[in-house]
Amino acid sequence: MLTEAFHERGLPIADFNGASQLSTMQSQAFADGRERVSTNDAFIQPIRYKRKNLTVKTKAEATKIFINEHKVAYGVKYIQDGKVHTAYAKKEVIVSAGSINSPKLLMLSGLGPKEHLSKLNITVKKDLAVGENLHDHVTFNGILIALPNKTSTRVSNEEVIQDLYDYKQMKVKHGPLASNGPNSAVAYIKTDPDLTAPDVQYQVGNIFLNEYIREPEIYDEINIFPTPFYDALLPRAMNVVPKSRGKLLLNPQNPHGKPLLYANYFGDPTDLIPIVKGVKFLLSLENTKAFKSLGAYFDRTPLKACKDYLWDVIATIRQKMALTPKPQPTWLIRQTDL
Ligand SMILES: Cc1cc2nc3c(=O)[nH]c(=O)nc-3n(C[C@H](O)[C@H](O)[C@H](O)COP(=O)(O)OP(=O)(O)OC[C@H]3O[C@@H](n4cnc5c(N)ncnc54)[C@H](O)[C@@H]3O)c2cc1C
Questions:
Q1: Could you give the C-alpha distances from 45 to 50, 55, 133, in angstroms and in order?
Q2: 143-201 pLDDT tens trace
Q3: Where do the structural domains in the chain lie, given as residue ranges?
Q4: Ligand 1 — pocket residues by CB below 6 A?
Q5: This model's pTM is above 0.70
Q6: Any residues with CB less than 8 A from the CB of 290 and at least 6 apart, and which?
Q7: To which CATH superfamily is domain 2-40+135-337 assigned?
Q8: What's the CA-to-centroid distance between 194 and ligand 1, angstroms?
């Protein structure tokens, strides 16, 4: 329904992994048949033990990259089962420990801000701004689309359990649990026509309306039902080109422990503007044929934190870390901010 509604409002239905992201479509997922799979299942397991040039070490943590006097990385130190090991590279070392642990590993290896590393007695190999580009896509999770009974996929608890049981038994997966997961549709818009690329992305989640309204802050933690069962949609508007930058530092208590993250969301307050414009665009969808034909509407029940504000200009802005997506309520928008 939402892809149809976005389409009616001028967005082409197209592959957002193609040349242009200014589009809408149902979301894509890694899947094997009708079953979601991880990148490990999709790409590593089929070739593990088959390729001579691939060795996978699990439960092994790289703690240092060796860098020689010519500034060439030639190996790593790693810990596995409590023992220290080394591995040497014939050609190159590729760091792919994710956006939190990659800068941590680089800093532990002496690549990072000189002042910070020196304080931790780490020999500085190169004074670099590692860790100083931390940013994320903050989302707005306050607009809820209620679906009438004929569109809702809500079923009894017993039916959910039966579906789970059936899905597990199926050789060829099908049925509601063979769907995409927590994100059913995607759209991108430009909030200013002069932009070269979209600045707002919508990701559409599935929720139970009453439960969400009752406990929006902890809904994600307490909802135990699989995502294909829902009676409302939650289109999250996010600024995908934030200007704010945070910082990641090694933990001075234990540089090998969890690093310190300073998110600095809305450090540049103009980052809020695309989100507000994105929400306004979203609200215009209620008049589309796609909405009307299904009887879908924006739920006007004020969230607890927003009871003193008009429903359509206020909700909770919630932060979503892509690596640890635990939304947290943070800010309110007043009508005067729009
Ligand atoms: C819940 C969730 C849902 C998401 N859904 C989507 C989605 O639908 N679509 C999408 O495009 N993106 C999604 N993302 C984002 C996507 O998963 C990441 O952008 C992507 O996985 C990043 O890939 P990466 O290889 O850089 O890092 P990662 O996937 O984080 O891989 C890093 C690997 O390095 C390992 N590692 C870390 N430190 C060390 C070390 N010191 N030594 C050895 N190994 C180490 C980690 O164990 C991990 O296996 C989602 C993220 C989350 C958390």
A1: 9, 11, 33
A2: 899 998 777 888 888 998 999 999 999 988 888 888 777 788 999 999 999 999 999 99
A3: 2-40+135-337, 57-127
A4: 61-62, 96-98, 101, 105, 183, 322-323, 325
A5: yes
A6: 1, 2, 4, 5, 7, 8, 296
A7: Glucose Oxidase, domain 3 (3.30.560.10)
A8: 33
